[in-house]
Amino acid sequence: MIILVINAGSSSLKFTLFDMDDDKKVLANGLIERIGIEGTSMKYQNHKGEKFQEPVPVKNAREGVKLATDFLTDPKRGVLSKLEDINAIGHRIVHGMEKISKPVTVTPEVKEVLKEGSLLAPLHNPHNLVGIEACEAVLPGVPNVGVFDTAFHSTMPPRAYLYGLPYELYENDHIRRYGFHGTSHAYVSGIAAKLDGRPAKDLRIITAHLGNGASITAVRGGESVDTSMGLTPLEGVIMGTRSGDIDPAIVIHLMKTKNLTPGDMDNLLNKKSGVLGLGGIGSSDLRDIEEAANKGNAKCALALDIYAYRIKKYIGSYMAALGGLDILVFTAGAGENSNTLRASVLNGLEGLGFKLDPEKNNVRSPEPRVISAPDSPVKVMVIPTNEELAIAEFTASVLKK
Ligand code: AMP
After folding, report:
1. For the chain, what is the mean pLDDT?
2. How far is the CA of 336 from the centre of ligand 1 (A)?
3. Which range among 50-54, 253-257, 298-302 shows the weakest confidence by mean pLDDT?
4. Which atom of ligand 1 is nearest to the CA of 240?
5. Is 380 within 8 Å of 370 (Cβ atoms)?
6. Is 305 among the catalytic positions?
7. Domains of the chain
8. Which one of the listed residues 19, 149, 226, 326 is annotated catalytic?
9. What φ, ψ does residue 153 adopt, rounded to 5°?
10. In terms of DSSP bridges, do strands 369-370 and 379-382 run parallel, antiparallel, or are they unpaired?
């Protein structure tokens, strides 16, 4: 089964082609950036290692999908003899509201949900829909499957997803915790259970997805029971440029005293805060913050300390929510690559059952692995996430049904 995975953003289109019958091999992948802006370019690579990187004349998502498929079937650098070999297209979609709780074939009804979800994910859902419609135009007859970031969290109980606000705001205005990064949390918690060997239904797992965006999820028996991101991906731990949890009264105070508009607040909390705002060196990349801290920059050292401390607090609160813990998983850019971050998150948590093996923690590897000591009551793992592969697997499972 050949699956094309599409991740359509506001000005980018990422695509990956998988052969699910050949050990889920990536046949080719590519990224078109700055679509509709000056300087549009495409990177493409096939499984033979042939690479292409050049400016391309792509004005919209439809032209992007057309170019991607032209490359996939190109006699020289392509990997398919004909487009009809593609069995299905899996789309990364951010918001499925309360209506979509699992991967689904895209129908007119599903598109309506996507449009409704645009109210809560204005930066993502409209572009996801454009990506689907581009595929419908370029690859007519090939089924499109939507894999929603929010779907894995649809199992959260009301006590986890409701805010302490008037109930009507939930009933009438859909204000609740939805959670994000669901495809990644689902994927890494599944791999963790396999690596552990005990049945997933018996396991209590916390997954820490620490990338540019970051979220922590409590998983019981393979289902999300709580997660740190909320109505939007702004809530929770501190991120590259996002504040994470703050006292909501800060918003009111700043708007009043500094005459800030909703747009100004949005920009401040989503784009100027997090380690970018705390570190003050103009970078939101944890590698830069770590390097500056190592050279003695006190603000960056403090930013790292706050970043790790907030993660630690979420781990503690989710251990309480789960009534204990079997496995803690670190994933995504910083979670997979920063041994110092992992050590600092777990520093002082021996009493809660975390015993890190420093040597294992220092190993760099693309493989899923255990980094705790054999006698650690809680197993600590690093599981590289792979959202594209997870979307391809979900798409294949929808198709098989
Ligand atoms: P992602 O969103 O999963 O692609 O993660 C990207 C982020 O991971 C980067 O912006 C960095 O903050 C972080 N990251 C990647 N590699 C490292 C590393 N070796 N050490 C610390 N942080 C890293």
Report:
1. 96
2. 8
3. 50-54
4. 12
5. yes
6. no
7. 2-148 (3.30.420.40), 198-387 (3.30.420.40)
8. 149
9. -90, 5
10. antiparallel
3-state secondary structure of 205: strand
Q: In what order do the strands lie in the sheet with 214-220?
A: 223-227, 214-220, 204-210, 327-331, 379-382, 369-370
Structure pTM?
Answer: 0.95
Rg of the chain's alpha carbons, rounded to an integer? 21
Q: Residue 111 phi/psi, 5° resolution?
A: -65, -35
pLDDT greater at residue 200 or residue 298:
298
Place of tokens 């239904």: 201
Rounded to whole angstroms, the Cα distance separating 371 from 355 reads 9
Q: Give the pLDDT confidence score for residue 122 in this predicted structure.
A: 85
The phi and psi torsions of 367 (rounded to 5 degrees) equal -95, 150
Backbone angles phi, psi at 41, to 5 degrees: -145, 160
Interstrand relation of 144-148 and 104-105 (parallel, antiparallel or unpaired): antiparallel
Q: Report CA-CA distances (Å) from 376 to 190, 350, 386.
A: 21, 9, 27
> At residue 37, does pLDDT exceed 90?
no
In the three-class reduction of DSSP (H, G, I as helix; E, B as strand; rest coil), residue 55 is classed as strand
Tell me the pairing of strands 41-46 and 223-227. Answer: unpaired
In what side-by-side order are the strands of the sheet with 13-19? 51-55, 41-46, 25-33, 13-19, 2-8, 88-93, 144-148, 104-105
What is the total residue count of the chain? 401
Residue 232 Cα to ligand 1 midpoint, Å, equals 21
Residue type, 23: D
> Nearest C-alpha to atom 10 of ligand 1 is from which residue?
285
Residue 245 sits at φ, ψ, to 5 deg, of -60, 130
Tell me which DSSP letter residue 177 carries: -
The residue behind tokens 């960056």 is 300
Cα 34 from Cα 61, distance rounded (Å): 11
How many CB atoms are located within 10 Å of the residue 158 CB? 9
The region, left, alpha or beta by phi > 0 then psi within -120 to 50, assigned to residue 259 is left
* CA-338 nearest atom, ligand 1: 20
User: What token pair was written down for 306?
Assistant: 């706050």
Which ranges of 205-297 would DSSP assign to H, the alpha helix? 248-257, 262-271, 274-279, 286-294
* Sequence letter at residue 1: M
DSSP 356: B
**What are the pLDDT digits (tens) for 110-144?**
999 999 999 888 888 999 999 999 999 999 999 99
